[in-house]
Amino acid sequence: MKRNLGEIDRIIRLIMGVGIIIAGFYFKSWLGAIGIVLIFTAAIGWCPAYLPFGISTCKK
């Protein structure tokens, strides 16, 4: 797996992931599980949704 997430993208995903998880707990909704996906992709630095479009936010 080649990294395709830059530092700013990873930080934004991490913050959004935590926020979505907190909102999921607050509203008692399973949609908070989406936050886990965002945190996971931020941690590994790779997003499978970027592959079909050839997107990469990494600095060259």
**What Rg, in angstroms, do the CA atoms define?**
13 Å
The residue fraction in helices comes out at: 40-55%
Low-confidence stretches are: none
What multimeric state do the chains show?
Answer: single chain
Task: State the end-to-end CA separation.
Answer: 16 Å
Coarse structural class = mainly alpha
Total number of helical segments?
Answer: 2
> Would you list the SSEs in sequence order as H and E?
HH
Strand-residue proportion? under 5%
Whole-number average pLDDT?
93
Could you tell me the number of beta strands?
Answer: 0
The overall number of domains is 1
What is the 3D form?
Answer: elongated
Largest sheet descriptor? none
In short:
By secondary structure, the protein is mainly α. The protein contains 2 helices and no strands.
Plain-language structure description:
This protein has 60 residues and is mostly helical. It has one domain (7-53). The chain is 53% helix and 0% strand. The protein has helices at residues 7-27, 34-44. Helix 1 (7-27) packs antiparallel against helix 2. The two termini are 16 Å apart.
Q: What distinguishing features does this structure have?
A:
mainly alpha, 0% strand, 2 helices, 60 residues, elongated, single chain
Give the SSE layout.
Blueprint: H1 7-27, H2 34-44
Helix pairs in contact: 1-2
